[in-house]
Amino acid sequence: MKRLISLPQVHGLRFGSAVASTLMFLAALFTACTASGRASSDGNQKNGGNQTAEEKSQIATFAGGCFWCMEPPFDKVDGVLATTSGYTGGHTVNPTYEEVSSGVTGHAESIQITYDPSRVSYEKLLEVFWHNIDPLARDRQFCDFGSQYRSAIFYHGEDQRRLAEASKKELEKSGRFKEPIATQIVAATPFYPAEEYHQDYYKKNPIRYKFYRYNCGRDQRLNQLWGTP
Does pTM top 0.85 for this prediction? Predict the structure, then answer.
């Protein structure tokens, strides 16, 4: 049973004024609540619009030897949201840099790219990938030797597999290289981010990075393969 609330007995103009004030207050409250509801709804719609880029972002994973050297070319690409150095393609869970470097984990030094497909296509990322590796080298890249430095495309889904294989075939048919392309195209497996000091290494340690890259002969070999960028 609803509890009845008795109103004070007020007479005359004061009663009429009180009722009018109450009605005006309720009307104003109703209007404010309605407006607030509309604003909240509009806000949710706008927030949803702001989240679409993140929600629609996709992942690409490549191995091209030293992951320090694979971050810079992708960081320059409009539409790439993030690059992460790490390890993938092996059997050891949560491997360390030392374990991967020893060659016993089966993992390859890799880079995982988060990108907005409305701003950059997977085909463009493949193009950047090819032009920053030596596709003829087997189980090595430049001065780094071992399967942990192999080149590979780790595809996420059928579309990426199809595009990756098409790009490899196109490169083979181009006649650019006389030797067979050694780059693997395999399904993506769990990706383990590398230790923090490896992330953005070329920004954190620019002198050491440039010294390593030059002495590894990376740019010299890339110029031989692809010409001066």
Answer: no
